[in-house]
Design a protein that fits this description.
Length: 188
């Protein structure tokens, strides 16, 4: 059931996945296909065993029909994610990650885990990375200043998660700065 806009403080994770599905990824096609035009652009031709770059939505469709193998993005491997997790734990700043890494990783792991090396470890590292980054987000919200919130390198899903709290908190802080509460004993 869809909620009315007034009750929906931000975009849903499924909607974010839909937006992320426009990202181009590499595949190894198992079929030949001429260049095909879509509203979003023309993709192809597909000639096995040559790699091709197509939108994630198209790769998912072909993968589900067993017509391609999806090649994981360069950041979707155990070594890279372990390095990023170590940075998240050891440094106060957010490490740099692709803007839609959560959504893309989820889609690829859901439909093409057989094309990935060690998908269970990838899931575990992504979960740990997400939890470490969420802890930093919560800490950033705790130290919220009425003029700004500086959390560089936040990703799409993370921004979406903190948006309702941030907007509400900034509204309250702005009101407090504009209309400071007078203590009743100070005026006496």
């Amino acid at each position: 059931m869809a909620l009315p806009l007034s009750l929906r403080p931000s975009v849903t994770p499924l909607e974010l996945e839909l937006v992320a599905s426009q990202q181009l990824i590499e595949i190894v096609p198992l079929i030949s296909m001429e260049k095909t035009a879509f509203i979003s652009g023309a993709y192809g031709p597909l000639r096995p065993p040559n790699k091709a770059k197509i939108p994630l939505w198209m790769a998912v469709n072909l993968k589900m029909k067993k017509k391609c193998h999806i090649i994981a993005p360069s950041w979707l491997n155990v070594e890279y994610l372990q390095e990023r997790l170590n940075l998240e734990i050891s440094q106060p700043a957010f490490s740099s990650m692709p803007f839609r890494f959560n959504e893309i990783a989820k889609v690829i792991l859901d439909v093409a885990s057989d094309d990935l090396d060690n998908p269970d470890k990838l899931r575990s590292l992504l979960k740990d990375l997400r939890e470490a980054r969420q802890a930093k987000s919560r800490e950033g919200l705790r130290t919220l200043d009425h003029s700004e919130l500086s959390l560089p390198n936040l990703c799409s899903m993370e921004i979406n998660e903190i948006r309702p709290y941030f907007v509400r908190s900034m509204s309250v802080l702005t009101q407090l700065v504009r209309n400071p509460v007078q203590h009743p004993l100070r005026n006496a």
